[in-house]
């Protein structure tokens, strides 16, 4: 199916990956190959791929350590009939993170799930990233699309040094510019004023959270480094202020 003026499947899939905080994880039981499904908390890598914090005591972790093939269902949790909301089934493999990669996943996961600070240091917990192979998007009648990873993941080519630039920008925005974040939410995205904070930036947009609510602010153009990100955030603050 081709995108239309009111339906861009790639953008919707990206938005679901960025905004989702819980999902259903399917793994394979060793020996039998029987499917096993469990509820997990989710965050997103700068490229949009899902991040999980899992305990080795959990059945799903033992499963994916034996066979890394997994699928993850994410949905909009729409009011009323849940089948009326958009959802994706992402298939791929789970990779355990170490070193600098684990540090990046930790920072982004804890930004989305700060309560995980209470157990993140436990020895049985590790960060995993799902490397997508494909996704199946269902967005209503006649809007069912299969997408390749390059269609819904954010290309990080040419953004060397991004983790450091993003970490500094997120910290600065949350410490000094919460008023601007609220303007992004209320005047650019049309939602209610709340205790909005920035939980992550990537070359294509910014993610915000207030309690259980999450928002995705798409940038009008791609940014590649700290200076371009700074200019974009200032530009959007000006546009939001002008809408008052």
* CATH-derived topology of the largest domain: Pnp Oxidase, Chain A
Using the 3D structure, state the CATH architecture of the largest domain.
Answer: Roll
Mean pLDDT equals: 94
Secondary structure tally, helices: 7
- CATH-level-4 superfamily name of the largest domain: Electron Transport, Fmn-binding Protein, Chain A
Separation of the first and last Cα atoms: 38 Å
Assembly category = single chain
Which class do the helix and strand fractions yield?
Answer: alpha+beta
- What is the beta-strand fraction? 25-35%
- Tell me the radius of gyration: 18 Å
Helix content: 25-40%
Order of helices and strands: HEEEEHEEHEEHHHEEEH
Number of domains: 2
Shape: globular
User: What can be said about the biggest beta sheet?
Assistant: 8 strands, antiparallel
Q: Please give the number of β-strands.
A: 11
């Amino acid at each position: 199916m081709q995108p239309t003026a009111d339906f861009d499947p790639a953008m919707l899939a990206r938005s679901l990956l960025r905004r989702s905080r819980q999902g259903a994880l399917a793994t394979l039981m060793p020996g039998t190959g029987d499917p096993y499904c469990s509820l997990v908390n989710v965050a997103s890598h700068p490229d949009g791929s899902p991040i999980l914090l899992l305990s080795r005591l959990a059945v799903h972790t033992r499963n994916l350590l034996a066979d890394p093939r997994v699928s993850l269902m994410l949905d909009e949790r729409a009011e009323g009939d849940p089948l009326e909301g958009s959802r994706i089934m992402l298939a791929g493999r789970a990779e355990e993170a170490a070193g600098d990669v684990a540090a990046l996943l930790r920072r982004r996961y804890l930004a989305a799930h700060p309560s995980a600070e209470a157990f993140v240091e436990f020895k049985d917990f590790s960060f995993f990233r799902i490397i997508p192979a494909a996704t199946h998007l269902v967005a209503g009648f006649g809007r069912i699309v299969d997408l390749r990873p390059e269609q819904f993941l954010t290309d990080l080519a040419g953004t060397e040094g991004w983790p450091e630039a993003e970490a500094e920008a997120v910290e600065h925005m949350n410490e000094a510019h919460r008023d601007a974040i609220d303007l992004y939410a209320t005047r650019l995205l049309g939602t209610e004023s709340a205790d909005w904070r920035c939980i992550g930036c990537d070359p294509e947009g910014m993610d915000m959270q207030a309690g259980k609510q999450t928002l995705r602010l798409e940038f009008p153009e791609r940014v590649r480094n700290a200076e371009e990100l700074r200019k974009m955030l200032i530009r959007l603050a000006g546009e939001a202020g002008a809408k008052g």
